[in-house]
Design a protein that fits this description.
alpha+beta; 2 helices; 4 strands
Length: 78
């Protein structure tokens, strides 16, 4: 089952790498990533598409990402 998450992260490669890295370590299968910078804020919207093959739950992914310093907001979108 595919799930989409929308994250507001610090702009730049470091924020992207931290989020993707934590999801890979927690065994989430990442199908797609789209990052768009929000002008004049230093932040970016990061959309991640996950496949939950092991039934780990999207809530666990959200909890893991919220612990990261570079992540300011995480929510599931349809």
């Amino acid at each position: 089952m595919e799930k989409k998450l929308m994250c507001r992260v610090d702009s730049g490669l470091e924020g992207l790498m931290r989020v993707v890295g934590i999801l890979r370590r927690k065994r989430f299968d990442i199908k797609g990533v789209n990052m768009e910078e929000i002008k004049n804020t230093g932040l970016a919207n990061l959309e991640i598409t996950l496949t939950d093959e092991f039934n780990l739950g999207v809530e666990q992914a959200i909890n893991q990402m919220e612990k990261l310093v570079n992540v300011h907001e995480v929510k599931e979108v349809n």
